[in-house]
Structure formats: C-alpha cells, structure tokens
Amino acid sequence: MAIGICAAAAVAAILAFLVAKRISRRAKRKSLLALPFPAEWEQIVQKNVPLYNRLPDSLKKQLRGLVHVFMAEKTFEGCGGLEVTDEIRVTISAQACMLLLNRKTTYFRKLRTILVYPHTYVAETSSSNGTIRIDGQSVRLGESWRNGPVVLAWNSVTGGTLNITDARNVVLHEFAHQLDQEDGAADGAPTLEGRSSYVAWARVLSREYENLQKKKKKHRRSVMNKYGATNPAEFFAVASETFFEKARQMKKKHPELYDELRDYYKLDPAEWV
C-alpha cells in the first residue's frame, strides 16, 4: 500500500511539474509576443524578406511577435566557418514564421537547432538496392530532420528569398517539412484540424501529386517545381512554396489545391498586394 501511495505521489508531482512548466512557457511566450520589434530587425526583414512587404499590417504585427518567440526558443549554429549574425537569425526566423501566421501553433515543437552553412554543402548519403548498401555524397541547399535540426545554406536562403516569383524558397520548403513531420511521419499530410479534413486533403493532394508526376515524365510546364514529384513529402513542401510565392497562379491553375492549403495555413496570399 505504501509503495502504491508513493507511486501515486510521484505521478502527481510529475504532472504538477509539467503543468507548471507549460503555464510558465505560455506566460513567457505571451510576454515575448508583446515585445517591441527592434528597428534594426525591421530593416533586415524589409530588405531580405520581400514577402513580408506584401503582408497586411495586422499580419506584419503578428509576424514580428512570432519572430521574438522563435528566436528565443531556437538555437542557431554556424557551420563551415560561418559566424551567425542578427541578419541571419532574423531573416530565417521571419520566413519560418510565415508558416505559423493565423494558426494555433507550437512553434515547430520538435525543432531546437538551425544549422547554417555559408554555401551549399555536401552531405553523406546511403541507399540500398535490397542486397548492396551504396554510400555516397550529395550537394544540399537545405534539409529537415525529423526530431532533429533544420540545415540551411545561407546563400540559398538569400537567393530564394529575394526572388519571390519563382516559388523556390529553401526556408519555406524545409520548415514545411517540419510541419509535415510533427505527427511523426514525413508523408505530405501535416496535422489537420479534424478527421474529416484528411479525406479531402488526401483526395486533392494525391491527385495533384500524380498530375505533377505525369507532367514531369512528359516534360510539360507546371506552376510548381517538378521536384515536388519526388514523393508526397516533397510535394507538400513544394506546394507550400508555390502557395506563398505564386499564389495567384496556383489559385488559377490548381484551385482545389490552393483551397486546401488556404484552409490549412489560414491565409489567402492571392489577396495580398
């Protein structure tokens, strides 16, 4: 009986600690959201994130608060001799937080660290044909690890950010992967609001994914980058890039896909000036 009482007390203590931690984190985030945005950061965002300049004032204000929380909770580490500056941290944070606007968010809860290389970097790869393991290397612009870091090449960040009409944005792409991976699987289906939402999501995105594969095979033009035909996870990431950077074209050519992403992101970028 004494052992049972001790165990129950221990469980209660743990639960109390977790509740207190959650309340403390919520209070800290609330204070961070209300902080004034430094003028230097505003200049960085206006210069390096042209998409920010399209936002309505209400969303700009919301984004500035999200950036405060993101930068307080995530660690940036320079790789390959890169020194992490406020410009790097603010530029990446502002783009990542675009995906969190208007949504109930956990701020990419599984993510702790963003690794930043100065240029495209080489990563080790491993594959198997069922009997033989093949090791090699590949050049990367960025990558997102489930339960691990996001890795970015700074020159790809700046290049993709400044051109907001090509739907190639490595930060939006890799952080869309983070959203996809939050439920434990990189399958192109992030956590949706209700069970019924998954039915429409699967129907629309599966059809659009198959259509993109056909266009790639036949070398036909597409609003979306054909890298999205690689697998469903890459399709969601590429579709997210296109949604933010080629919103009007996507809405015209792929209205059902646009509607699914609009419902998920709680945004309508086709209406932004």
Can you summarize this structure?
The chain has 273 residues and is α/β, with parallel strands linked by helices.
CATH fold description: Collagenase (Catalytic Domain)
SSE run = HHHHEHEEEEEHHHHHH
Strand order in the sheet with the most strands: 1-2-6-5
Number of helices: 11
Structural class: alpha/beta
User: What is the oligomeric state here?
Assistant: single chain
The CATH class, by name, is: Alpha Beta
Task: Tell me what the structure shows.
This protein has one domain: Collagenase (Catalytic Domain) (3-Layer(aba) Sandwich), CATH 3.40.390. Helix 5 packs across helix 6, helix 9 crosses helix 10 and helix 10 packs across helix 11. The protein is built from 11 helices and 6 strands. With 273 residues, the protein is of the alpha/beta class. It starts with a helix and ends in an 8-residue tail after the last helix.
Give short descriptive properties of this protein.
273 residues; alpha/beta; Collagenase (Catalytic Domain); 4-stranded mixed β-sheet; two-stranded antiparallel sheet; 11 helices; 6 strands; globular
Topology:
Blueprint lengths: L1 H32 L5 H10 L1 H5 L2 H17 L1 E4 L7 H13 L14 E5 L3 E8 L4 E8 L1 E3 L5 E4 H9 L7 H12 L13 H24 L13 H14 L1 H7 L1 H11 L8
Parallel strand pairs: 1-2, 2-6
Antiparallel strand pairs: 3-4, 5-6
Helix pairs in contact: 2-5, 4-5, 5-6, 7-9, 9-10, 10-11
